[in-house]
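Students often ask why inverse folding is considered easier than folding. One informal answer: many sequences map to the same fold, so there is more than one right answer. In these notes we will look at a single instance of the problem. The structure comes first.
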């Protein structure tokens, strides 16, 4: 118990140092800091994706789950008719499963969950040349840099789990707005 308190105080102290350190930073350094900031852009097939139709949402609150987060499925205009009706997905269809952080606030009246920043994106792009993975290109992208995660194998890491949905073109979620 005492040890815990000690660490608690040490962390608070470190945070305090961090805050005061920041406040005393001379403003002359600001331009240098601004210059070092890199801005990232989504790849062409994802431009404007956060404005696409949000067809399905769910919250996975277990932080140990690989599916943790405030999840949203977003689909582009080409994919929307097929997603709604179950007809064939045309070339150019893009489906995004967005994993966002969440903020939970609880009080005696209950709890509220707010969506936070994007952690990562699971993406399916219709591409008939992707014969190994059912005519979809599966990829996992970092939510900030949009870089593809090299450790994810599209067959064993994505496609194999989507296989049971082959009669629905490998798509799990259903329109639920
Ligand atoms: C363990 C099984 C599993 C694995 C592995 C998996 N998915 Fe999924 N995926 C799902 C389920 C289930 C859904 C439906 C949303 C939900 O309920 O979480 C889904 C939804 C999606 C969606 C939205 C369209 C749809 O099918 O509903 C995309 C896009 C997607 N996954 C891409 C990927 C990519 C890319 C990978 C690999 C990085 C991947 N998935 C790995 C189970 C899986």
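Output (designed amino acids):
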């Amino acid at each position: 118990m005492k040890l815990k308190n000690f660490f608690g105080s040490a962390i608070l102290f470190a945070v305090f140092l961090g805050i005061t350190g920041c406040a005393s930073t001379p403003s002359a350094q600001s331009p240098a800091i601004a210059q070092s900031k890199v801005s990232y852009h989504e790849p062409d097939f994802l431009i404007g994706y956060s404005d696409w139709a949000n067809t399905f949402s769910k919250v996975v609150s277990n932080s140990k789950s690989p599916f943790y987060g405030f999840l949203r499925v977003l689909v582009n205009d080409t994919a929307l008719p097929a997603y709604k009706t179950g007809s064939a997905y045309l070339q150019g269809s893009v489906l995004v499963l967005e994993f966002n952080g969440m903020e939970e606030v609880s009080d005696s009246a209950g709890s509220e969950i707010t969506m936070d920043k994007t952690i990562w994106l699971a993406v399916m792009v219709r591409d008939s040349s992707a014969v190994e993975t059912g005519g979809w290109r599966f990829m996992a992208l970092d939510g900030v840099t949009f870089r593809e995660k090299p450790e994810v194998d599209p067959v064993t890491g994505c496609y194999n789990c989507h296989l049971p949905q082959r009669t629905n073109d490998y798509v799990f979620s259903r329109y639920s707005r």
